[in-house]
Structure formats: structure tokens, C-alpha cells
Amino acid sequence: MMIIGLGFVKLCFPFKTAKSLTHPLTLSLLGGQSQSGAQSGSAFGSGTQFASARIFTVQELSSACNDFAPAYEVGVGGHARVYRGYIPPYGDVAIKRAKLRAMQGREFQNELDVLSRVHHRNLVRFFGCCEEGDEQMLVYEFMKSGTLHAHLVGKSGRTLDWKLRLNIAIGTANGLNYLHNHADPPIIHRDVKPSNILLDEKMNAKLGDFGISRMVDDPEDIMTFTRVAGTWGYLDPMYRETRKLTDKSDVYSFGVVLLELVIGKESEKSLGQRKPIQGDMPAWVEKEYLAGGLEAIIDPVLNGRYPYETMCRVLETGLWCTRPKWDDRPKIKEALSALEYAKAVAGKETLPEDSQTMVEVFGQHLFQNLGLKKPRGIRTPPPGQAGGLLFTEDQLLGATNGPGTSYSADSVVLPATYTKVEAR
């Protein structure tokens, strides 16, 4: 399995004729500016300048993967096939080759527009592109560890432990946070799912595939579409029903990914070890979790080796992100804060009686967002797992921002002391 990436790039055109200066792909990369304009410092649209992008020839890319031989194919989608190739000085690359006219020009142009504006460690790096005759190709970094999907369904030959899963979740959230809050203009991905989360050799997560992404003036703006685009199972139900899209639609999709990181995906390894998922996945997870606790639904591949409370927090963040209504979901930066908090307290859940600890603020906030009638409390963990502390709402508010103050995931206040309440 392969994957792809983006980054800063320096325009070095292989074409030496005047015609190359008006090549449609060249103009696409330059945001409609002349080559001289780019060299003098003009930006691509209102976004980031490329520091090094190449326009490749069909011959170059064909040679890189043995004339697009089947043995070099590492992925296939509805509109394109992906090949692994080798191009100096980039080394291994991923070549996304559109099926004949499948990308319809608009998707091809859209992905180029997005790629010209983004640069982040959790987004795939873009090296260049090719447009000759009927051929349309994009060239990215090759992601040696494949897709998150391949790992979750057991096709990678490697088991993801809880630390990797949490780091992948945080990396993906970081990439989305950049798209929503730091890209210029903001970008809504529209197709967040495990097969679009790519992993490098160090298992760092990077978002890829921007073919249906949309640039917006404000990520909170509501856009209306004539048709719904995305992947069933990860589609925001409000977007699916109303054809209206906001940044909270990406948050929903990310929430489904979080749930799958905790419970796994249906695979040969999970069959017979857990109840099969039925109907709407987030609703099923919430029902089973509240009825039977984490141990009833967690991925059996983990074989009990995980910090109980930390994985509860990750799953509950997923449930928060997948609330049916936009207003009940967090912003992606709030979900990111919750995950970083979960990571910070991982391994610190069993403490001496006289130790001081951080108050679990997020869990109580989530309890309110789930609309439960009373606190879920901390369930007794399975044998060998860490226990937890249960705090009342008044104690939580009193220990942090004071009575009557709303919790903000952007400013978690960790008290120096706390009042212990016996776990139950």
C-alpha cells in the first residue's frame, strides 16, 4: 500500500521553450502568474508559495515505474491508480495516474489548487505533476508504511499498539487543524477516512487525497452542494441529508476514524471475538460502551494491552465528534486538545494514595455533551488494567475555572491539588 504527501517546492521547469511558460499546468502551479512573477515572489493565490515543484513528462514518470507495470501498482480508486516509482533526487515516489478522463480536469485542477497552498508535517508532500494529452498525473512522496486502513484490517502484517493509535489520531487532528485554522484560505477536506491517512516509515500520520476538498473564506461558513461527495460511513449525516457542508463535517469523519482506532475495523481477527457492528457505527459504539464498558467493544487485536482510562478518553472524543448535530460537536482544535490531554495523562492513572494528580476535566465536559442523565463514572477496569478517579461536576469546576465557568478545551487548567473521590 502506498501513500502521498505535500510540501514546499521550487519551480524548475524542464521545458526550455516559450510555450512552457503558458502550459496550463504551469499556470496552475503559478496561480495564473507568469514565471517571472513567481520568481519575484508572487504568491499562489492568497496561499503559500511553492519552493520547488516540477512539471514531469510522461516519459519520466513511465520510466520511473517500468511503464506503469502492474507490479508497481500500490493502490487503486474510483478515479485513479497509484504506482510506486523512483525518481532522483526524490527517491521513492507515489505517482497518482488518473484513469482516462476520470478526474475530469476539475478534480485535477482542484487538487493542484489545494496543494499549492498547504505545507504541514501531517499532510503528504507534493513533488510535481504531469499533464500531456489525455494523461493527468500527480507525484507525491511515497509513504512506506501504507494506509491506516491496511493496518486496521490486518493487511499490513503489523499490529498497531495503543501508543501508535493515539499518535496517529493526534497527527491526523494536527493536519486537519492546519487545514481549518491555518491554511490560507481555510480548507475542508471532505473525505477523511483511514485509506486517506498515510503512514511514513516512522508511522507518522499524513492526510492525503485532496481531490474533493474545498477552499472556503471561513471554515464555519455553510456551503450548499447539488450532490454529496465523500465516503459512506464517514459522511456527516447533516451534510448527507441537507447537502450543507461546514468544518464540522470533517470533524464528524474524524470522529468515525477515532472510533475505529479504538474498536478496530471488521476483519478476520475480530470476527467471533466481539459483537458485529450493526447499523450506524457511532450509535452502536455509544450504546455498547454505555452498556458494557470499553472492554465490550475495544479492538481484540490489542489483547488487553492498553491504558484503560486513556483509551476511554479517546473513544469518548470520537463520540463527541460524531454527535448528530453540528453545534454538539467540538471544533477540530478542541478534539486535538482532548487527545493531547489523553496522551499527557497516559500511564499516570494508578497513583499512590498521597500523590497529587491532574483532574479529569475533559471526561466531565464530554459527559455533558453526550447528554447523559447522570455521570457514567469510571467503570471497574478488567484485571491488570489501571483504575481511575471519579470527580463530581462541582469539584471539577471548583478545581479548575471556578463555579459556573464553562470548560474550554483550549485552556485546560491543571490544579496543583485535588479532592479525591473513591473510584466506583
From TrEMBL:
Task: Kindly give the Gene3D superfamilies that the UniProt entry links to this protein.
Answer: Phosphorylase Kinase, domain 1, Transferase(Phosphotransferase) domain 1
Q: Where in the cell is it found?
A: Cell membrane
- Give me the residues that bind ATP, please: 96
Sorted UniProt keywords: ATP-binding, Cell membrane, Glycoprotein, Kinase, Membrane, Nucleotide-binding, Receptor, Serine/threonine-protein kinase, Signal, Transferase, Transmembrane, Transmembrane helix
Q: InterPro entries, from UniProt?
A: Kinase-like_dom_sf, Prot_kinase_dom, Protein_kinase_ATP_BS, Ser/Thr_kinase_AS
Q: Does the keyword Ion transport apply?
A: no
The family database entries (Pfam families) matched by this protein are listed as: Pkinase
| A single GO cellular-component term on record | plasma membrane
Q: Name one GO biological process term.
A: defense response to oomycetes
Highest taxon of the lineage: Eukaryota
Predominant place of localization = membrane
Q: Which membrane topology term applies here?
A: Single-pass type I membrane protein
Q: Which residues form the Protein kinase domain?
A: 68-342
GO MF annotation list: ATP binding; protein serine/threonine kinase activity
Family, similarity comment: Belongs to the protein kinase superfamily.
Its protein name is Protein kinase domain-containing protein
What taxonomic ancestry is recorded? Eukaryota, Viridiplantae, Streptophyta, Charophyceae, Charales
